[in-house]
Specification:
Helix 3 links the parallel strand 4 and strand 5. By secondary structure, this protein is α+β, with helices and mostly antiparallel strands. Helices cover about 25% and strands about 30% of the residues. The chain contains 11 helices and 21 strands. Helix 1 packs across helix 9, helix 2 runs parallel beside helix 3 and helix 3 runs antiparallel to helix 4. It binds adenosine-5'-triphosphate (ATP) and magnesium ion.
């Protein structure tokens, strides 16, 4: 009997942000019963999950009890109580991707050691227990400037990363166990999402290229196809496949790379879940990353990752200077542009640079999609009512 399509499969998703919401939207097409765990009742996925469960992703009991409610347990963030996941696994619960893989990825130090051990190209690094140990090593001239410091745990969206260019920059040094990496002369940042199921089938998405907003250190525009060479693209796709195979992972893995000033393709980090750099796949690829994640964790055949049309994705970020109940400007005008697809996550409160939604622009040429995306970027603003001095 096909349990999946006869509708009593219970899928649990830890955390109910926008990634969880979009995963649930796909799961509902297959009539899967969805459970979401999040501490915030107003989280984006809360209102569309079949069952919303209040609780914290980092709390042992919340995660453990939640896992007991479902047939298959997955997550949309890395920051999950790993002990609870391991206990659930040891009791026969299906947790995908595997908790041990998440444990490795949660720790940027272990992640870097994994790349080194397996000959995956990545920037040179050293691991330190504390900021004092780093300062000592600088005194002994064992570390030279510039360098990049990353907290081993808990960083996201650039928080937990400090670029230190010289002695004056040491004021930015973060407290805690961290990795010190060589600063790469970055030419481009790209990402490849790859999926693998239990049968060992692997499918990669085309390379996407990220353009960053220098103020927010968040992805500003994401283009597909990217402008890198065929050789670089093949290298990235092969490395992504190699990493997911080495990990023996079931699920979706987003691999972030740098292309340095010599054209080398270097792995930065991975995320074992749907990813911001895959939003465009909803409209521009035959199988979206969310559907692919479901296929991968349920051991179904993986879907085609063929690009239908060139696309540009922009995040809709909270405008600077506004904090409070969100109101949107420019949506109607943007929708009037051909090929513009708007996604609002339903976050009630906006803050400067908070990810409130995204827009994918499709066109027959990337140049045209880029122009339209820039217009949309100027048009859409997320502001707030009178909870900040700079209100409307
Ligand atoms: N070794 C490096 N050399 C130069 N720049 C770097 C290096 N490592 C990171 N960066 C810059 O810092 C950004 C954030 O780093 P990283 O992706 O490792 O952290 P993160 O907090 O996980 O971010 P996110 O959640 O946005 O992926 C990178 O996208 C890149 O622009
Ligand atoms: Mg990153």
């Amino acid at each position: 009997m096909e349990r999946l399509v006869t509708s009593n499969l219970k899928l649990g998703i830890i955390a109910g942000g926008q990634l969880g919401k979009m995963l649930i939207q796909e799961a509902s097409k297959w009539d899967i019963i969805t459970y979401v765990l999040d501490h915030d009742e107003d989280c984006p996925a809360g209102s569309i999950a079949s069952h919303y469960i209040k609780g914290s992703n980092v709390d042992f009991d919340s995660v453990y009890q939640f896992g007991k409610m479902v047939d298959v347990l997955t997550f949309e963030i890395e920051n999950v109580n790993i002990e609870a996941l391991k206990k659930l696994k040891s009791e026969g619960q299906r947790v995908v991707p595997d908790p041990e893989i998440l444990e490795l990825i949660q720790d940027k130090g272990l992640q870097k050691e994994f790349y080194k051990k397996n000959g995956i190209p990545t920037s040179n690094f050293r691991i330190f227990e504390s900021e004092n140990a780093i300062l000592n090593a600088i005194d002994k001239e064992e570390i030279s400037f510039p360098f990049v410091q990353k907290l081993r745990r808990g960083g996201y969206d650039g928080r937990g990363v400090a670029v230190i260019d010289g002695k004056n920059g040491l004021i930015k040094l973060l407290m805690g166990a961290s990795v010190i990496e060589d600063k790469v002369d970055i030419e481009k940042e790209i990402s490849v999402i790859v999926a693998r199921n239990k049968k060992g089938e692997i499918k990669c998405y085309p390379v996407v290229e990220m353009l960053f907003d220098p103020h927010a250190n968040l992805v500003d525009k994401l283009i597909c196809p990217s402008s890198i060479t065929v050789e670089q693209s093949e290298k990235a796709v092969n490395l992504a496949s190699e990493i997911i195979e080495l990990l023996h992972m079931e699920g979706l893995l987003a691999v972030e790379f740098f292309i340095d000033n010599k054209g080398e393709v270097i792995v930065n980090e991975v995320a074992p879940r749907p990813h911001n750099s895959g939003h465009h796949t909803i409209e521009s690829i035959i199988t979206s990353q969310f559907e692919q994640h479901l296929r991968a964790i349920l051991n179904l055949p993986l879907g085609s990752t063929k690009l239908k049309l060139p696309s540009v994705m922009i995040n809709i970020l909270g405008a600077d200077g506004y904090e409070g109940r969100a109101i949107y400007e420019g949506l109607t005008e943007s929708m009037a542009i051909d090929g513009v697809k708007i996604h609002l996550y339903g976050k009630k409160i906006t803050k400067p640079y908070r990810k409130m939604g995204h827009v994918t622009v499709l066109s027959t040429s990337l140049e045209c999609a880029l122009k339209k995306a820039e217009t949309v970027k100027q048009l859409i603003k997320v502001k707030s009512w009178k909870e900040n001095h700079q209100t409307l």
